[in-house]
Batch of 3 targets.
Target 1
Amino acid sequence: MNNNNTTSEVTRLKEKLLHEREKMEIFLSLNSGCLFEYYPDDDVLVFSNNSLCAELDGKIFEQCCTDMPFQNILSNEDIERFCNLLQAEKNGAIEIQIKMDNGREEWCRVKVAVLSATENEKTEVVGSIVNIHDEHIAKEKEEEGKLLDPVTKLFNRYAVAGKIDEYFNGLGNNLEHTMFVIDIDGFSLINDHMGELFGDTVLTNISDELRYILRRGDIVGRIGDDEFVILLKDMTELEQLEQSARELDKALKTTYVGETDGASITCSIGAARYPKDGNCFGDLFAKCDSALYHAKSLGGGSLQLYSEDNGFPLKEDGDYYNYYSTKYETKEYYHLFDFGQEMTKYAFDLMSTTRDVSSAIQMLIEKIGKHYNATSVGVFEKLRMRSKLELSYVWSEKWIDVTNQRVKVDFSYAKELEAFTDKNNLYVIDNLADEPDTSPVRKLVKIHNNNALMLCTFYEEGRCKGCVYMADLKNARKWTEEEKSSFVVITQIISFYMLKLRVSERMRDNLEHMKNYDALTGIPTFYKFENDAKEYIRKNTGKYALIYSDISNFKYINETLGYQSGDRILYDYALMLKKYSDERCLFARVSADNFVMLRPVDDEEKMKDWVLKFNEEFRDSQRKKNIMNNLMIVSGINFFESGSGDISVIVDNANVARKAAKNDANSNIRIYDRKMEEKIHRESEITDKMEQALRNHEFVVYLQPKIELEDERLVGAEALIRWKKDDGTLMPPNDFIPLFEKNGFVLQLDFFVYEEVCKMLRKWIDEEKSVVPVSVNVSRVHLNDPTFIQKLCNLVESYNIPKKYIELELTESMFLDNTEEALSTMKKLRKLGFHVSIDDFGAGYSSLNLLKNMPTDVLKLDKEFFGHKKMKKEEEIIVTSIVEMAKRLNMKVLSEGIETEMQSEFLKKIGCDMAQGYFFFQPISVDKFEKLLDNQE
């Protein structure tokens, strides 16, 4: 028996412990705050010690849901909801309002969890109360915000329809009302002339005016770009509707719409009545819209009330909209809200919702004047590059001569004002008669005795930049503390956005300057040059020369001498342009080292001589500064008569001549002529046909054999491209490759050659022929393609070709123009197993300087070394030195362009490895090359 009692006691303790653990876990899962326990069987509620509410702190309530002892802190409705939650026998949560110790009702969230009854424990409810007032209010505001139009802060089209229908179905069900649909006449013109942002600001002002006009309970919303709807509650009499229309007209006509002379706006109104014309928003809107259409068809500016006959005008005797005064009568507009707070909020909203800051400031100071019942408001500021304060913005009652206020004041007066202003930068005058004649305010604004004024200064980086003033030019007045404080805040808002505007203007000026003047040289940009040249040629008839010049191999100068030296050269060139130009000449930096000049011409030959002299003089001046600096200026000249064409075409033609000069070994100046035009035409024809030619297999690969000089064996080949035309003729690569490099088509053509070579090598390997390496050209365009190497590897691997059979040729000029990219590409290719050679070696200016960094397999000596049947002594010395140097660097040497036995014997003698040229073989077809291979075997 004792054992049974012991077992029972242990079981009870276990259950109790489990029950307590469950309770603890629930408490931990609940939000912190005021915790409580409720025992339904006993109707007892126990609160923990807490700081949420003194009425609940540690309290125990017996007969909780019977007596409901919470009248001091909960409404009757919330008491009932709270008790229902406690007795619900399941987990749940509600939100109620609890009166706190400060007497304010705040939103709280009540959460409960029910502990299941056990054999030894009763059912128990545990819960918490958490203050969520801020969260609840924020959520309410968020929901309210969804109902508002973002521009006007009126109800949006969906919300206003819902609010009106809700009213019809509730309090307004048994009354009669009128609905207006309002369309602003010609509002699109405001958007077109002033911009949409300015239009939005006008709409904001209109909506503000609508709030002032309407009675407390009327409902207003924005339903379109410039359309509004108003429900005038308990109003259907024609006289009342007519008065409402007049007030709308006055409000619109006094709305600031910009600086356009005589600008003002009116509206057309369509009206319908509830319940006569409809008993819901949709029905009434359709009727209003019909009446509005009729009003607009009459030319706008009228009110039409819906009838079965499509409405009728409320006034039969003319345009009653026109003869009423547009001057506002004094009204207490802000009877529904705190004056100062609403005004400062309006200021911030207006300034922050438009980018047209200047117009917004003008609108705002007008609002300030009207709302404070002042007669003049203005902004004085210290403008850039000005020594005096100036009146930037001003609004005044119409009877005041605004021009008399546009006075200039020494900036020292602003410094004097700093001594007068208080810690809020505010200076207040209730009666100017009390101010001495020496007061700086008397010089700042022309006001007279018995007048009142408030003035607030503003600063930028610690320096006084101006002030905002507001004056009553009719009466002395005692400014209230609320008026002072709100005026300070409004000044801060205005000054913040105005100073931001000035910064933007300075930035815009700087950008305009950057657009028109080159940052490095200070001379005009090409953008300015084009505009100025068009205007100059239009005004001045005659003959002109357009000279387009650049510094040859300038990129190489940057990379060897440094960018600072390169910039100095460009600056010096610009200085020389200024030195040799007068008011009849125009010049500019186009880009990089490209410059243009426009000069009047009397004699073309003399102009050419002048350009030669100019270029030579600049070259000599730079050589004196740096003996290693061997510059060459290349120029193209286009002579033309005024009125002969577009300036951009004239510049392009001069540029064509410049490019021709770069390719001319005999002269660094070329004059544009028809032949160049014909060349452009030929290039255009080639460009038009290149895609189709590739698809039609008109491009054919030829091979030029490479010979081992020691035993004259065939040891390789160079793949060359030919364009085989429909008539069977072959176009040499020099006629199309340079063009393809310019237009980018060389990328496709090169990969066509690469694939043809891969097919050929695969065939030799499969047929177990003797295989020799084949070299292919790498165009400079590939250096700018980050995917080039990977695409090449993918192609070679797809044909399973050992990379040692592919030799990639990079021209020496590529290393001069794109040194880093070329060296990087060469290293990567060799690392992958390709052979690499430097083509046209010795054609450049300083290739020996780069040779130490060139990890190449083969040097191909430029054919210009062998341009004579008998080599000059100097050429033999140079070639011998290069071959010896290459040997020491573990490079093989191949000489191209070999055409005589004498040249061949010389190369054998000095130890040159390989040669190619017409002395051995011309470029031949693949079939003929394969026969050579077979014969060699």
Target 2
Amino acid sequence: MKFRYQVPLLILALIHPAICNADDGQKDIFLDQIQPLLAEHCLQCHGQDENTREGGLRLDRRQAALEGGDSEIPTIVPNSPDRSELIRRLTTEDESERMPPSPDHPRLPEAQIQLLSNWIQDGADYATHWSFVAPRKADLSNGQQEASLTHPVDQLVARVQKRAGIKSSPAADDQLLCRRLYLDTIGLPPTPEQRRRFKEVGLQATLNELLNSPRYGEKWARHWMDAARYSDTNGYEKDLKREQWVWREWVINAINEDLPFDAFIIQQIAGDLLPEGNQETLIATGFLRNSMLNEEGAIIPEQFRMVEMFDRIDCVGKAVLGMTTQCAQCHSHKYDPISMTEYYGLFAFLNNSYEAQSWIYTDQQQATIGRIKRENEELENQIKSRIANWEQQVQSFENLTKQHLAKWTPVRFHDMNSVSGLNHPVHEADDLSILMLGHTSADVYLIGKPSIDTEVTGIQLEVLTHSDLPFNGPGRNPVGSWAVRELEVLYRETPTSEWQKLALTNATADYSSADEQQDEGKKAVGPVTYLIDGNDQRQWKSDRGLGKRNASSVAVVQLETPIKMPEQGEIKVVMRMSDMVGCCRISLTSDPAPKASTVAHDAVLAMSKALDSRTNEDRSAIFTAWRLQNAETEQENNKIAESWRAFPTARTSVLHLKERVDSKKRITHRLDRGNWDSPKETIDPHVPSFLHTMDQDTAEPARLRFARWLTDSRSPLTARVMVNRIWQQIFGTGLVETSEDLGMRTKPPVQQALLDWLAVDLMEHNWSRKHLLNRILTSKTYQQTSRISAESYTKDPTNLYLARGPRFRADAEVIRDIALSVSGLIHHQIGGPSVIPPVPQNVLDYNYVYPSYWKPATGPDRYRRAVYSFRKRSMPDPSMSSLDAPNADTACVRRVRSNTPLAALTTLNETIFIEAARALAIRILKESQDSDTERIRHAYLLCVSRLPNAAEEQRMIRLLDAQRTRVAEGWLNPRMITTGNADQLPELPPNTTPQDAAAWTFAARVLLNLDETISKN
């Protein structure tokens, strides 16, 4: 028999139900001690992954361990360690048989071998990992110590403390508790007035006010933005700007409105598929579109689409399930019971989505659009009422249109590229449409062998909409429009012959923009005749205007001399463009004198569909095309055209998900070793077997079913993950420290009963995060002082037993907001575009593509909260990075706090902190008495919510005196210190001097950099 105990990896799949009947003590021993031991030394070679399993032996399943591997010798014999091959192989002196294998790994310590022997002696019971069992509420009715406590959090914490012999700390004083409460709920310190009100009305009333403050959503949205890897740029080499801030605005509003967390997740995963969906739920699906986008030249688009997909699964795993998933994209997970097949089952739920972008309108604009649509519908209904046989007329119109259409044969191209090499056209599905993937390009060429065996008389260029394009395209410019400078057609008789350019004539189109002469007539845009006029300064454009421009178009050109394609003949089509076409189709015909129909091409495409497969949009397109050519409807047509002129310009757009139609359904394959170009067997959407089942009795789309499954009340993970994440933000560390991974590498948390109770309580109260925060923040556990004795610190250095209040440095954004708030500079405005912060010039110069748009905000916008700061992936704000803010490349659900000189240098010297110090100095001088002592006390109350002690007062007075002396002696220019301009002074309060302002600017810099200022307590 061959088996190994090797590296620290952990995989324990679901155990047979009978195994879970062990008593709680046995379960605890297995989960706390045996499972980590097996994971650390055994399971890489004897775990779930059959590709790395040796000797056919599995130790992650009890029955497999009892049966043994290929040798069929029982590895474990319950109640008999002496007969168990496991113990023999651990203790043998034969180096060829000893496990872990020598010389790679040392022999297991005797204590660990004895632990395994005792476990086998007691029956070798396995147990399901704690986090894969649905949480339940512990009974709070028992326990004399807990009976004196009325709050469930305190009762559960007291039980654990009692077993450990640890006592809670006294309550924090009101001033510090008030500051802690403000920082935890809204991320801002209290003003002096707010501290006085806290003392009057108490914690509960203050908490209610804070949870209803618009500042609450701004604070808590930032944590979700980390998990969602929100950024204002695309990442990679070019890292260009993107419009996505409206998704951030949605998150802030959703949190302020206390949208239930299950609905919060469902809308972000599948809001576009909800029956009650609207623009807001569409915006929500921007969550998964926050991935990076690679716009480098010569990339393979499908390869990087796979990178995006892997990132989305990783994001859902960390943010919602609290599990790592990356391992399983290449092989069955070696830590958690996720097989490679199950990974691609999850993948399949998200794989059938377009990379869509849509316009977003204000409420007023939506009302205007709704009015336009209602007016047009009423006018069309008037037509239907007035023309009794309109249906017959529409059908006759359709029949006549079809009769006059040429018979077109689409060309399948085998060589599609651009001269620049930046764009990569590919055929879509079976309709032979061509999607322009990769970077935009001014030219493309397409080479193929036509399947038409008759004389070719004309060529058709269809410019088609596609949901992967901005606003459905059909172009790839920022509004989805396009313009073609020139269309050229060449052919050759054999693949080795010279290309011959064909003369083109008689260009026609379903629609052309009005002729627009530019540059004194040297350039022009408009009619389709410009498509073949041999002049690249003139171009065909088909832009129907706001609300209608994202529509298909068609152009037809005739060959001046028809050609007969030889059997080996090839055709080459070249398009040169100013704004690139995003999707098109090229077809040939042998019909004499072919022309484009004057009927809108979207209507022609709708007519090509079978009646039972037409959508409402198809039927509307055909009806619209009919009424536009009908003389009887001229009056209504004019009114409808006039109504469309009021169509509003969108305020912004959003990247979001949109499900592909059945005819374009994407098939998911397992990818060999995770390689995008190595597809194996087909995988249908399904969920991991070790978690709760999915409801299959529904006709809902797969992605929506997946969203509902994630938030199912039977889920053992989702509610726990949310509770743990919120606890982490309040106490600095989650009840499970690895908040991104509640999988099998994590031991049962010390406070598991508390975690589970709060998880169930969250679900019982409609997944309300405000309710959860209220539960936690009203507990005595939260309200304890953070002061600690050396003895208590020795007993519990990481506060596992929650015997003291939280104390840690605030997050980067909170530190910045504290400085702006206490200085009086902060500007409160909910939502809107991101604000560009000041950064050093050398940071800008370092960019591969210089961000010419980087113009730091001025005026009040400069001092908006950090949640609104522009986030550029390849150029993280150095002040935020020094304080450990992530750069949004990947999902981050747990920031690691560092302690380096860079942090102190940032808060001392970065532009915003200098400006905050200057403003704080003037505020202190304005709001305090003439005495420096009074000013110092006021300054301390602003910055740390307490009065200074005598020693602190004396140090501050000495600092002020020293700086006044330096200014008076001419060593320092008070204008430079207080404004940064040698010729300008700030507006000084009465009875103050420039020396006062300069000295207090230095003092303010010191106060803003106190550990106490930038920390919670």
Target 3
Amino acid sequence: MKRLLFVLFSAALCSVSALEYSRTDEIQTFRPGNRSKVAENTIFFPEFQFMYGLFQNYLHKWIDRPLFFDRDTRYPDGTFAYVTGKSFLKEAEIVKSYGFNGLGSLANIAGGALYRDTDQFAVKAGKLPVAEVVQYGYDGNYKNLKTILEIASKSPFTAKINGKILVPTYNVFYSNVKNIQPMLDQARKDFPGGFYLMAQMDIRPADVKNFLRNGSVPDEVKERYRQEIRNILTVFDGIQINPAINYTDTDGEYMCRFDTSFYLKEILPMLKAELAKPEFKGKLLGNTILHGYINHMSGVNHGEFGTARLRHSLEASTLGNPDYVLFFEWNEVNENTCFQPTLYNSLALQRLIRYAIGQFNGNAPAPNPGDDPALPNLVFSSRETLKSGEPLQFELMNIPDGSTGNYTVQAVINDLDGKEIFRFPTESVAKDQFRTITYTIPSEQFKGQYIIRPALQISEHGKTVPVNNLHYVRIHPSVCNVYKSVRQPLRDLLTPDSVNFKVVPDNNGKFAISAELHSSEELASLEILDLEREVTAADPTNEFDFRNNMIVFGTFSMQGAKYQPVSFKVRNSEKWQFRPWHAANVNFAYQFKRNGDTAQGSTLVWCQPCNFTLSIPRSDIQNAVIEVSVNGKKAEFKAADLEKYGKMAALVIPGERIRLDLENFAKLPDIPPQLKSKHAAISAHLPSAAKYPVYQLRAVTVNGKIYRSAPIMPRRPSAQTTVVNIFSETAKKVVAVPLLTDLLPVLNYRFDPAPGAMIRSGSDERFDGQLGGGFVYCEPFCSGVPFPKGKTSAPVWKHENGIDYLHFNGENQYLNLPAESFPRGSFTVKLSLRPAKTATPMVLFRHFDRWLGSVSAYLKYDRLYFAFGDRELKTHTFATNLTVTPGKWNEVIISYDCQHITFLVNGKSRSFPLTARALYFKPFIFGGHDKIEFGIDRKMTYFHGDLKELIIKHFAERTSK
């Protein structure tokens, strides 16, 4: 059983400053409970997603990638595969190091063929370090279930319990029981050897919140769960359940929190009682374990909280003594549910899970092979980035490894230059105790600090070892879309023999970057990061050669999905090259062939970014013309224009809404092959997409150790601050905080037709918008929002009285601005618009994709209306009674300081009290869409009229000081 100690500090003092924080102290054991299970031994395994091999190009779409990335496991040139034998078997070996018994394969629907492929990889190799566990998600098609059961029944690697095939569920819920019964009956006739087909039971977040609030739930709620358990066990061969339930603290953190107490107190006793009944003898109990769900594209984030969710989930699961434990998922990079070692996770999850499984099975703890016993088996976790007002957590987790004795650890917070800001008390830790100490600090206390650097002081036997190369934490005044934790085992930190890293600005806005590193261990990669993302790397092959070539990054996207014939040509250049983008779910250009001056082929264009790169010699740029043809429709771009503007775009086939975006690329296009050398160097001369770049050198060894340098910020903001109202997620109230003025985004969009179907932010390229578009995953028109057929989505550039402006047709034309361009806190939006006269209400803008972010603004009877949908899904609607005159230019300003919403139209103003918070970070759409939800309560038109100014400020301009 765990022991929780909560110690609160209202203030703590050091020689530099005072800092308020809270402290928790937890001890966990992971010992099995007293339930009698069916399986002789519990099976532990992660779910494997076929489409994410160790060879995919994870850059610039996802925020993490496999720690043991290896391009040598990629498919041959000119082909494509979701999984290769080399990659699969290498991952299976890694899986074994966790103490897992199996590797779950998601095999229903299209996954059936890939499940057969992976099984054949194992057969051909003559071995598999772990057993395969086939998972099934009900789709109503018995043919799919039969196919995977046939493969599983013939495979020598299939996991079985008491001679029966184990088939855990992937989202087979109780609601499907009536539909699945005939299929189960047929399967049991066709496979007399037997199988265990499981069903998932969900726990409702509302019941958990009620339980946490009142300490119990009504008897009728308990009876409902009891009946659901009986219904599942009557039809299926067992029940699968997640012991950690997500719920939203509407007054607290942006991330969803988790709870295991409801499961332990209410649900687990019911499960044990029902499974012990004679009619349910032989039925299985399985658990699903997550360590978090972090989606940097959708805004949905179920917090990891260091390792807290995983630790508590594992502990709750072991107390039920389950027949199997499914870890969700091994390598799903879209939602960052990876249990696989990654750059963020390092080997922290491997160390924790290996220990927990060992304790459950009664094994003595032991270090990882190659561990240095001079350092404790301690894991430090923190967030990579935060938005001011969010709580910052530092987690110290000690994992026993068989050694004894005590050591002390002290956490320190330094500023960007390494100067100490705060020092926590010294903690004494017993090596043989699984113990986790967590400090939680309200981040709004770091006034004027953009970068903070955690460090540790480890002391044992009178010797103190400093740990200074931990990942820094960046605290942005208004923006955060990465909510992952960075887990850093001290024994997996690389200490180079020597390192030299310099960044020098030039007079043209670029930076001369040089780095050299010597290591006693063989390196896999050496990379330069800017704002935590890869921009260049050591590559002895010089694959892309930025000095002599312009690298063009291109993306096709469309609403829907369609195979399209595509061709590329670069006129006035003989040595240009085309290269596919090797990423999952792209299916692009692997079969393209170069014939003379043209590369052509066919590709699927859909809601996944269909990316490619072109390489054009710099000596050809002034005369080169990029010509792209899609189904016979051409788009042309002068290479010199692309170099000048940085980004350009076009709707290649407007009626089918196929758009093409091009970028003069100054980032790493693909991870180079592994270095496999103990020395590496980088020399580069690059621009930065950021006004205030933050550079870092990162090295990864073949064995998975990571070195992270201190950050370098070659251009710094001034000390000037602006007082902004923000929401403190710790205090659960609005507080006024001085934030660095230079870092507060002011997006004054440039109305310039030269780049084509796009609009530049005028500040930071990550906020650049599209004319139309928004067809990519988690953008407004990916799916779920109706769109008229056969129409263009881009407004039209027009010119009048020396001014360029955009005209919107009122049917389906809009601007799509990226997530976080419109903030989740204080804001000012300024518009200069000329609406047409309409009898139907029209949408102005929304903070929305297919799900709510927060706001909807619209015109009705020439009056301005505004709606704010909050975290409790409550809509606050405001009728301003301010007139926006049709046929004339109007200045509209909407300002929100987290306490009041103020509307100013042509000099007349109205203000209302409002303290609502945004539900999710989402894109900002001007001109649409018209989905009836959260303030849009009737059929409306898209914006009809003209727009010549759009400014978004991440503070309330009228109340700032």
